[in-house]
Amino acid sequence: MRALVTGGGSGIGAAVAHRLADDGFNVTIADLEPDAIATELGATALRLDVRDETQVAQAMDGVDVLVNAAGIGSTANAPDTTVEVWENVFAVNARGTFLCCKHVIPGMKARGGGAIVNVASVAGLIGLKNRAAYSASKGAVIALTRALAVDHVGDGIRVNAVCPGTIDTPWVQRLVADAGESLDALRARQPMGRLGTAEEVAEAVLYLTTAEFATGTILTIDGGLTAA
């Protein structure tokens, strides 16, 4: 079974690619820089900019399981967010996820079904300080996930999302540095007293690829952050 992971070159996407490969999937890593992880796994590397519809349409051929992990962040409130930053965050996080889903669904439908897992964020569920564009884009991913689930449940296509909390990845570390925050402060605000790992999110993604009665599910993996 062929699984394609966007943003699979690093962070959560790379952990997902590893976990799916371990479970026997034929993995394609689609990223701006996919080669290192693909070589490590013996997987297929595909250079893909999820903002480019032509590239996306070509990439989705024959995909049985799609994981949309490509994403970028922004650390600013609304007045300090430029239109250019807003549009770029939405272009990757929301438009990119939409394009991948749009172009993978016809093939899945023709083959009798498939599974899509979108990587959203707790930022799309609750308010996080200085994350205006990012939070809005991930809220869009959550709403899109539910809409697609309803539209395509009769086609045998399950569409779910994971909402990670604060995960210890280089991407989060860069965001923290940009916002002038500290990892120690982030750890302290977690009910579990630690950050999550990319591997823990990958386990949740794997579950959603195989959970036959789950569609439209928004699975929160945040160490209790949104429950506190």
Brief summary:
With 228 residues, the protein is α/β, with parallel strands linked by helices. It has helices spanning 11-22, 35-41, 53-59, 83-110, 132-152, 170-179, 183-189, 198-210; strands at 2-6, 26-31, 44-47, 65-68, 114-119, 157-164, 218-221.
Assess the beta-strand content as a share of residues: 15-25%
Shape: globular
In which order are the strands of the major sheet placed? 3-2-1-4-5-6-7
Order of helices and strands: EHEHEHEHEHEHHHE
Number of folding domains?
A: 1
Structural class: alpha/beta
The share of residues in helices is 40-55%
Head-to-tail CA distance between termini: 39 Å
CATH class: Alpha Beta
| CATH-level-2 architecture | 3-Layer(aba) Sandwich
Task: Please provide the count of β strands.
Answer: 7
CATH overall fold name: Rossmann fold
CATH superfamily: NAD(P)-binding Rossmann-like Domain
Radius of gyration: 17 Å
Low-confidence stretches: none
The largest β sheet comes out as:
7 strands, parallel
Would you tell me the overall average pLDDT?
95
Helix count? Answer: 8
Fold and architecture overview:
By secondary structure, the protein is α/β, with parallel strands linked by helices. The chain has one domain (2-223): NAD(P)-binding Rossmann-like Domain (Rossmann fold), CATH 3.40.50.720. Helix content is 46%, strand content 16%. It has 8 helices and 7 strands, in the order E-H-E-H-E-H-E-H-E-H-E-H-H-H-E. It has a 7-stranded parallel beta sheet with strand order 3-2-1-4-5-6-7, with helices on both faces. The termini are far apart.
Descriptive key words:
228 residues; Rossmann fold; seven-stranded parallel β-sheet; 8 helices; 7 strands
